[in-house]
Amino acid sequence: xSVSAQRLSPEDQALYLKQYVxxxxxxxxxxxxxxxxxxxxxxxxxAIVSFYLSRPEAAKPTVRFALLLPLIMGVGCVMxxxxxxxxxxxxxxxxxxxxxxxxxxxxxEPVSLGLSHVVSILGFLLVVLGLLVLIIWPNVxxx
Length: 143
Hints:
80% helix, 5 helices
């Protein structure tokens, strides 16, 4: 046990340990949630885009409005992931602080959650730009 962990009362140690477990679980569930969000978004977007591309040319002007759903979802995902990535360093500092108080030598790094959000943002932005091209300039694709 470290010197700082020895100075804590047993009640404080229990409280900090509960807070530490809560933060680590938050990171674990956050990584799970961003993975599920990515899978859902890409599956839904892929289904709608393949539906759009499989329609005959005469039906495409009206079917093109179906592309608005993944476009709006993508913009929402970019905004949510941006906020989460922006706030990730605060959680990282708190986990490090509590791990130091408890005398832990190793602890999970919550920055990985922020980095996964940044990578997701890049993917979402690429898809949103592709959808904008399909909506605004449908003949550019050549299908």
